[in-house]
C-alpha cells in the first residue's frame, strides 16, 4: 500500500483537472471511498465481531437527585440535576408551604 502522499499524487496524475489540495482529497476522495468500503464490508457481514463494527451498547448517564422534606407536612419530593443554593425558597408540591432550604 502506497503512502497517502503517493496515493494523492497518483490521484492527481489520473485526474489532472482536479483542483483538490491534499487535505481536500483526503476528506472528499479518500474519506468517501473508505466509508463506502466499510459500508460494503458491513453490508456483507464481514465486519461483525471486529473493532470496526458498531456493536449495540447500553449507555448511562449520571443524575444527581436531590430529596427535599417539607418542614410543614413532612412529605418529601425529589428534583433531579437541580442544585439548590442554601436559603433558596422552594414551594412544597404537596401542601404549597414555602420555605427556605438547607442541607441536612
Ligand atoms: Zn408540605
Q: Which distinct ligands sit in these coordinates?
A: zinc ion
Radius of gyration: 30 Å
Number of domains: 2
**Can you tell me the overall shape?**
elongated
Tell me about this structure.
By secondary structure, the protein is α+β, with helices and mostly antiparallel strands. 32% of the residues lie in helices and 15% in strands. The chain has helices at residues 4-14, 22-43, and strands spanning 65-69, 76-80, 89-91, 98-100. The strands form two sheets. A two-stranded antiparallel sheet has the order 1-2. A hairpin with a 6-residue loop joins strand 1 (65-69) and strand 2. It is elongated, with a radius of gyration of 30 Å. It binds zinc ion (ZN). Zinc ion is lined by residues 70, 72-73, 75, 92, 94-95, 97.
Strand and helix layout:
Blueprint: H1 4-14, H2 22-43, E1 65-69, E2 76-80, E3 89-91, E4 98-100
Entry keywords:
alpha+beta, two-stranded antiparallel ribbon, 15% strand, 2 helices, single chain, 104 residues, binds zinc ion, 4 strands, 32% helix, elongated
The gist of it:
With 104 residues, the protein is α+β, with helices and mostly antiparallel strands.
Amino acid at each position: 500500500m502506497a503512502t497517502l502522499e503517493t496515493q494523492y499524487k497518483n490521484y492527481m496524475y489520473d485526474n489532472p483537472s482536479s483542483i483538490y489540495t491534499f487535505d481536500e482529497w483526503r476528506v472528499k476522495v479518500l474519506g468517501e471511498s473508505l466509508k463506502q468500503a466499510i459500508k460494503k464490508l458491513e453490508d456483507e457481514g464481514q465486519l461483525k465481531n471486529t473493532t470496526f463494527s458498531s456493536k449495540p451498547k447500553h449507555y448511562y448517564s449520571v443524575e444527581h437527585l436531590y430529596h427535599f422534606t417539607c418542614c410543614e407536612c413532612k412529605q418529601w419530593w425529589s428534583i433531579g440535576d437541580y442544585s439548590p443554593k442554601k436559603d433558596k425558597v422552594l414551594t412544597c408540591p404537596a401542601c404549597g408551604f414555602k420555605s427556605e432550604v438547607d442541607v441536612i
